[in-house]
């Protein structure tokens, strides 16, 4: 249920992100960076939980010095969140593997410099120290220019901001970057990331729902966004943001991996757009009208025998009795309604014939093959 992604593959030290690389799961230390012991403990806790990447925040030279101590004690892949002080990039870049800046914060300092000049500086620093970058657009801190340009179109503002900053980084011929567009509303996260992905399918995307909150609500909000995006092939790395005690931050990694596994296996809480694509096998629940309990085993056998047609948009109905069976198989491409000793095989409303339980699967496959061949031979509009 996670289709092939179209993004390019980038490198964060020895971690590949995007393209055919596994979806990376990351988190962020929840401690003040100046608390060296506490932050190191967080880093190690997240490493033990299986984090691919760990982010720390830096907003002062005191944070930089603390980060220097932290780096000396860990080989974890680290990302730094520059927060509102982008000029700290040259001090922290030697200590980390990835720089994250927020376009909404670049106007705060050195107002005489253009945004393009500030982005150029960040790219030069990243390139000099072999760091990747994240353009991290946050819906709660939209640059004033975009608020003015887009007025009430909040999603339009954050998507265009991300696209414009990609263009600035591209102009510097730097490719090892990802984009994140986050909000606390999963619907906004879905819409914004889909819009951006349509504009720039080549750019790897970092997914997340900010301020998702405490479990289970925070997990549910995040799941909704991730299900709708990953099922469309959108998203290359992710972070689950949960309000939990510091010692429980590893839960973010565990939940992230669980969500990826669930989506890959088709276990959804919401319904992705392609959920009903492909072969659809429907079967009625067993009830007192069933005339042969072999119908239940037959349904399982139908599922196994037709796996080869999983990518074809066809419906097979397996019904257990003569009361609802005849009518409810009419709308299916192929239908089986089961009597005491025979199974009535139908092609739409047309009865193909009645067959024994042991022989109907072979006839079903014949009809299925014929339907697939007819569809493939039909001219496409």
Task: For the structure shown, list the relevant keywords.
alpha/beta; 8-stranded parallel barrel; TIM Barrel; Sulfite Reductase Hemoprotein, domain 1; 5-stranded mixed beta sheet; 15 strands; single chain; 39% helix; 381 residues
Describe the fold and architecture:
- It is a single chain.
- This protein folds into 2 domains: 10-264, TIM Barrel (Alpha-Beta Barrel), CATH 3.20.20; 280-377, Sulfite Reductase Hemoprotein, domain 1, CATH 3.30.413.10.
- The chain has helices at residues 36-49, 61-73, 89-92, 115-128, 144-150, 154-171, 186-199, 217-230, 250-264, 294-305, 325-328, 360-377; strands spanning 10-12, 15-17, 24-28, 53-57, 78-81, 98-101, 132-138, 177-182, 205-207, 237-239, 280-283, 315-319, 334-338, 342-347, 350-356.
- An 8-stranded parallel beta barrel has the order 3-4-5-6-7-8-9-10, surrounded by 5 helices. A 5-stranded mixed sheet has the order 11-12-13-14-15.
- 39% of the residues lie in helices and 18% in strands.
- The chain contains 12 helices and 15 strands.
- Helix 1 (36-49) packs across helix 2, helix 5 (144-150) packs across helix 6 and helix 8 (217-230) packs across helix 9 (250-264).
- With 381 residues, it is of the alpha/beta class.
Query: What is the level-2 CATH architecture name of the largest domain?
Result: Alpha-Beta Barrel
Under the CATH scheme, which class of the largest domain? Alpha Beta
Biggest sheet strand order reads: 3-4-5-6-7-8-9-10
Question: How many distinct beta strands?
Answer: 15
Assign the structural class, choosing from mainly alpha, mainly beta, alpha/beta, alpha+beta, or little secondary structure: alpha/beta
**Could you tell me how far the N terminus lies from the C terminus, measured between alpha carbons in angstroms?**
27 Å
- Strand percent estimate: 15-25%
The total of helices stands at: 12
Strand and helix order: EEEHEHEHEHEHHEHEHEHEHEHEEEH
Kindly report the name of the CATH homologous superfamily of the largest domain. Answer: Dihydropteroate synthase-like
Q: Radius of gyration, Cα only, in angstroms?
A: 27 Å
Mean pLDDT: 91
Contiguous uncertain segments of 5+ residues: none
Indicate how many domains the architecture comprises.
2
Give the fraction of residues assigned to helices. 25-40%
């Amino acid at each position: 249920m996670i289709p092939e992604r179209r993004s390019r593959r980038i490198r964060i030290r020895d971690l590949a992100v995007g393209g055919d690389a596994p979806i990376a799961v990351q988190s962020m230390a929840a401690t003040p960076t100046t608390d060296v012991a506490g932050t190191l403990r967080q880093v190690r806790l997240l490493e033990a939980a299986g984090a691919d990447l760990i982010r720390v925040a830096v907003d002062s030279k005191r944070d930089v010095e603390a980060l220097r101590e932290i780096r000396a004690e860990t080989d974890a892949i680290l990302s730094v969140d520059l927060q509102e002080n982008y000029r700290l990039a040259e001090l922290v870049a030697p200590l980390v593997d990835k720089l994250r800046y927020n376009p909404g914060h670049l106007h705060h300092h050195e107002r005489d410099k253009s945004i393009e000049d500030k982005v150029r500086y960040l790219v030069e620093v990243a390139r000099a120290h072999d760091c990747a970058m994240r353009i991290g657009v946050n819906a709660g801190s939209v640059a004033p220019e975009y608020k003015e340009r887009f007025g009430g179109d909040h999603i339009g503002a954050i998507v265009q901001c991300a696209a414009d900053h990609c263009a600035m980084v591209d102009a510097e011929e730097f490719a090892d970057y990802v984009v994140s567009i986050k909000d606390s509303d999963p619907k906004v996260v879905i819409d914004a990331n889909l819009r951006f992905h349509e504009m720039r399918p080549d750019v790897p995307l970092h997914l997340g729902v900010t301020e998702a909150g405490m479990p289970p609500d925070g997990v549910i909000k995040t799941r909704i966004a991730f299900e709708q995006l990953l099922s469309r092939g959108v998203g290359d790395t992710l972070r689950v943001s949960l309000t939990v005690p510091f010692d429980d931050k590893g839960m973010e990694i565990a939940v992230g991996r669980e969500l990826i596994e669930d989506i890959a296996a088709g276990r959804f809480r919401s319904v992705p757009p392609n959920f009903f694509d492909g072969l659809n096998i429907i079967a009625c629940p067993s009830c007192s009208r069933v005339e042969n309990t072999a119908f239940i085993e037959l349904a399982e056998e139908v599922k196994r025998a037709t796996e080869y047609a999983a990518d074809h948009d066809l419906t097979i109905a397996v019904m257990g009795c003569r009361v609802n069976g005849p009518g409810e198989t009419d709308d299916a491409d192929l239908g089986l309604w089961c009597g005491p000793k025979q199974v009535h095989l139908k092609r739409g409303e047309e009865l193909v014939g009645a067959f024994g339980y042991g022989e109907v699967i072979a006839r079903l496959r014949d009809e299925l093959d014929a339907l697939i061949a007819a569809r493939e031979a039909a001219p496409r509009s």
